[in-house]
Amino acid sequence: MLRPTLEIADIFRDHGTAWRDANRGHVAHCENDACGHIHIAYNSCRNRHCPKCQATAARDWLEAREAELLPVGYFHVVFTLPAPVADLALQNKRVMYDLLFKASAETMLTIAADPKHLGAKIGITSVLHTWGSAMTHHPHVHMIVPGGGISLARGEEGDSPTGSEESQKWISCRPNFFLPVRVLSRLFRRLFLEMLAKAHDDGRLNFFGHHAGLVDRATFDAFLEASRKSEWVVYAKEPFAGPEAVLAYLSRYTHRVAISNRRLVRADSDHVAFRYKDYRAGHRDRWKTMTLTAHEFIRRFMLHVLPKGFHRIRHYGLFANGSRAVNIERARQLLQVPAPAKAGADDEAAAKSDEPQILNLPCPSCGGRMIIIEAFAPGMEPKHRPVPEPIDSS
Predict the structure, then answer these.
(1) Mean pLDDT of the chain
(2) Is the separation of the CB atoms in 63 and 84 below 8 Å?
(3) Tens digits of per-residue pLDDT, 66-105?
(4) Reported pTM
(5) Domain ranges in the chain?
(6) 3-state secondary structure of 93
(7) Could you give the C-alpha distances from 321 to 185, 199, 302, in angstroms and in order?
(8) What would the pLDDT profile of 128-153 be if each residue is shown by its tens digit?
(9) What share of the chain is helix, strand, coil (3-state, %, to 5)?
(10) Would you say 84 and 158 are in contact if contact means Cβ atoms under 8 Å apart?
(11) Partners of 362 in the β-ladder
(12) What is the DSSP letter of 286?
């Protein structure tokens, strides 16, 4: 087969350098005069699967969440799809990841609203992860949930807190226990499989390769029956030790991608080596190094690229976007705690002062602070350049 006269690679090869030069950003200088390291940072690509760009997005998102934290214990709950069901998600990412969000959230809201367990409407922040440590396909949802909620009206099933503010109260869960995971697991399994069956009836699922036979409803029903008999994993971790621990956790998990740059060990023309966590090993020996061919590394990374426009951070219950501010304010009233102070005029003036802007990265040479000394627009060249190191002629 003849090679095309023009390939995408040709365009990147011929024009990539010029494009990078035309999309620069700012220059940072180490404040340690004895070091003097200069770093040129290019404009963000803004791709949500880029580990470097997501660090900035995470900081902005966290600032908003910090103001919403309630002075109560927070719990971490994880909902995981079993492997046979998860395999279908590779061919139906948008549909099945959406069902994972909906079924897990409905499970939590339903059990929490049950007077036998909590009898309250709770708030949930859900984050989708689709990977294991070795970048294998492992779709699961991490939830951060306050340990309590606003009381419900009698007979209410969790759609909204009671309309009478006088009768509302904050209901706290038991210390170190939120909701029973076995009950959550059974309801999650039923809800997800019901939603999956309806998606099949509606013609919303695609089946290829060795799953092609599942297009037949009888075959699909047999597949679902096997999944109904298996145990589905719902894991509730120990509560966080205060709001600061919640923020630290969120900073690590909300904008994480399949692998971070810091886990990369080395790469050559054929292979990529990276660190991963082997959960079957002892605690001290969990971190190991895996080496993959470059093509396999890219294949695994691409497994976790989400459909365009798909939201992988979602809020439910008290934290649902349309009513979050009102519900959080009401929760603070019931808990009898003041809202966090808003920035005043003095704070705004300080923010606009001539204080140097600090880059949120340490100097790679000495570990000191990096101060932004220049910003430049796309297409412009920076005035400051790193001084090249002298070549050793010995």
Answers:
(1) 81
(2) no
(3) 888 898 999 999 999 999 999 999 999 999 999 999 999 9
(4) 0.73
(5) 15-47+355-384, 71-258+306-335, 270-302
(6) helix
(7) 26, 26, 30
(8) 999 998 989 999 999 999 999 999 86
(9) 35, 20, 40
(10) no
(11) 369
(12) -
